[in-house]
Amino acid sequence: YIAMERKLLKWKPPGTWFERLSGIHPADRQMLSRGIGLRMVRSGVACTALVGSYFLA
Fold first, then answer.
1. In principle, which of 11, 15, 36, 40 could form an S-S bond with 26, CB 3.0–4.6 Å?
2. Distance between CA atoms of 12 and 5, rounded to whole angstroms?
């Protein structure tokens, strides 16, 4: 019985290694990947503006 329980307890958490590491649930994958492009553009523009204002000052 103990060997059978050990076999049943060896379950793998769902999702890829990145999802497990960051705490993202696999069901939220579509929702997160839809808006990631816009967020990347926004953060790139904000970073460029911040660094540009530092160099121009």
1. 15
2. 15
